[in-house]
Amino acid sequence: MLLVASLLWGALASPDTGLNEVQLGKGQSCPVPRWIEHGQVEHLARYRCDPYYQLRSRGDGLYQCSQQHVWVNEAAGEVLPICEPVCGKPKNPARQVQRIIGGMMAAKDSFPWQGRLLSRHNHTAGATLISDQWLLTTGRNLYLGHSENSTLEEIAPTLRLFLGRETPAGAVERIVLHPEFPGAVDLALLKLKHKVPVGEAVMPICLAQQDYAKVGRVGFVSGWGWNVLLEHPKHLKYVLLPVADSSSCQAYYQAHPWQPLVNNHTFCVGLSELHESTCLGDAGSAFAIHDPEDDTWYAAGILSFDRSCLAAKYGVYVRVLSVLDWIKETMAAH
């Protein structure tokens, strides 16, 4: 006979406590199961994650009390599983039938990864949530209101971040600039001092694991950049934009007074069918692609050059796939 005791250990231990270190208090567990003649009782504990989180483990989350009175999983041993935030699964995803200069107002919780970054003197920029503690933005966004000689330690306390329904994300603990900034890659990682709870309104976007930035592919860009009145909107807006030919984009800017970074780490995006575009304050936002195969949203790029505002033909984005290893290594190291 097998008796399964499914225990909710999350309420009994801190995230840093091992299963074998948990001491149950009086009244916090079922009575010791009774033995039966010619049979045995196995004690099992199964881990489950809260909504909007998923279990990551070498095993299946099921732990058994061994003969040595130690909780073990067949594959993971004594190592506990981790509940990671779900990414790229908005409750109310944007649709292509809807249509940031002149863009459509985003529906509630359509872009839960969109952050609004305020720097010194209330300069507005975009940021993209990629985990419950890390965001991507551009390196140039961080220096808005600061001199180029300012240190990252000086800049970090001046940053204010808002997520979801304009909820403060808390203090920025660490800034990590891409090692090729500012010459080749306009990108930075922001680590929050505390993790943010993930749900309908706040959810990271998944990082692209393949090259979604194919010419003609349409992506969604949300943001708080200037609208047609050259002012920041009161509500989050978004626009659908097509990936453009990189060689045409490069040739265009070679003859243009503006010189954004256009190289192997970037891709270009054109105007919408209604001649809409991004504008000042949108940089740091994601070029979001919906993959119908797994019904998941991925960040294919991060907007770097947001000064087009219909005055230039192309927006320029840092290609996420090009910097994916750096992102993963940086997050793991800090």
From TrEMBL:
Source domain of life: Eukaryota
Protein role: As a result of hemolysis, hemoglobin is found to accumulate in the kidney and is secreted in the urine. Haptoglobin captures, and combines with free plasma hemoglobin to allow hepatic recycling of heme iron and to prevent kidney damage. Haptoglobin also acts as an antioxidant, has antibacterial activity and plays a role in modulating many aspects of the acute phase response. Hemoglobin/haptoglobin complexes are rapidly cleared by the macrophage CD163 scavenger receptor expressed on the surface of liver Kupfer cells through an endocytic lysosomal degradation pathway.
Source lineage: Eukaryota, Metazoa, Chordata, Craniata, Vertebrata
Subunit composition and interactions: Tetramer of two alpha and two beta chains; disulfide-linked. The hemoglobin/haptoglobin complex is composed of a haptoglobin dimer bound to two hemoglobin alpha-beta dimers. Interacts with CD163. Interacts with ERGIC3.
Domain Sushi stretches: 28-85
GO MF, any single term: serine-type endopeptidase activity
Biological source species: Mauremys mutica
UniProt xrefs under Gene3D superfamilies: Complement Module, domain 1, Trypsin-like serine proteases
InterPro entries: Peptidase_S1_PA (IPR009003), Peptidase_S1_PA_chymotrypsin (IPR043504), Sushi/SCR/CCP_sf (IPR035976), Sushi_SCR_CCP_dom (IPR000436), Trypsin_dom (IPR001254)
Residue ranges of domain Peptidase S1 in the record: 100-332
Protein name from the UniProt record: Haptoglobin
